[in-house]
Write a structure and sequence with these properties.
Order of helices and strands: HEEEEEEEE
Structural class: mainly beta
Number of domains: 1
Radius of gyration: 21 Å
Largest sheet: 8 strands, antiparallel, barrel
Mean pLDDT: 83
Number of strands: 8
Length: 219
């Protein structure tokens, strides 16, 4: 509940912060963006079931309807691959084997996304905020273990699963846009929070993810 309140407060701040800029550009009310870059899970491993992977590919695509030159709202489709990491779960007794192998993590999300952007100058800052659904996917492959940690012969396994979680994201970037062009080039940093998306020894907790990307804006 506290996290939800914080995200709503940030949303109001983004909207109010963008309101003063009122310059007209005479461009289309529709704007699209495409970004590619790096994604990384930002969780510690102290109470995690699996080790935190080293990171991987991030892809985001947006379409916005600009309500005025500064503020717009639209949809985002995004994909993050967080990499793979070795794990080992000891046996908890004679009736339950342990596991050793590799775990891979990724997510696909669809969010309602807002943007507040500067509309003057060659270099223009912008902020973005989104709320939506994240489909988390985990893949496991490995071998079962005896209580003493010895691999059980012919006990290799492969498994995968996915589940949908509510999440939010907040970020900002810097856009380079020559005044005579409909294309702009940007760099962006984004923080994603996926509620109850991270397995810990005590259950589940929020999963925090960072993305660093470069891309284009066009309208």
């Amino acid at each position: 509940m506290r996290r939800t309140a914080v995200w709503l407060a940030v949303a109001a701040g983004v909207a109010l912060g963008g309101a003063p800029a009122l310059a007209q550009e005479g461009t289309s009310p529709w704007m699209g963006t495409i970004h590619a870059g790096y994604s990384k899970i930002m969780e510690n491993e102290d109470d995690a079931v699996y080790s935190v992977p080293g990171g991987g590919l991030a892809l985001h695509g947006n379409v916005f309807r600009m309500l005025d030159p500064v503020l717009g709202v639209g949809l985002e489709l995004g994909y993050q691959h967080y990499g793979e990491e070795a794990f080992e779960i000891p046996s908890s007794g004679a009736l339950e084997e342990g596991q050793r192998g590799d775990a891979g993590f990724s997510s696909l999300h669809l969010s309602v996304q807002g943007i507040a952007r500067g509309v003057r100058g060659t270099w223009r800052p912008y902020g973005t905020l989104g709320l939506g659904w994240y489909s988390l996917r985990a893949t496991l492959s490995g071998q079962l273990l005896l209580p003493d940690g010895t691999p059980i012969p012919n006990s290799t396994f492969e498994d995968e699963g996915s589940e949908s979680k509510f999440g939010a994201n907040l970020g900002g970037g810097l856009l380079f846009k020559p005044s005579a062009s409909s294309l702009g080039f940007s760099v962006e940093a984004r923080w994603h929070t996926i509620f109850d998306g991270w397995a810990t020894t005590d259950g589940t907790a929020g999963l925090d993810v960072m993305t660093l990307m470069a891309g284009i804006h066009f309208n």
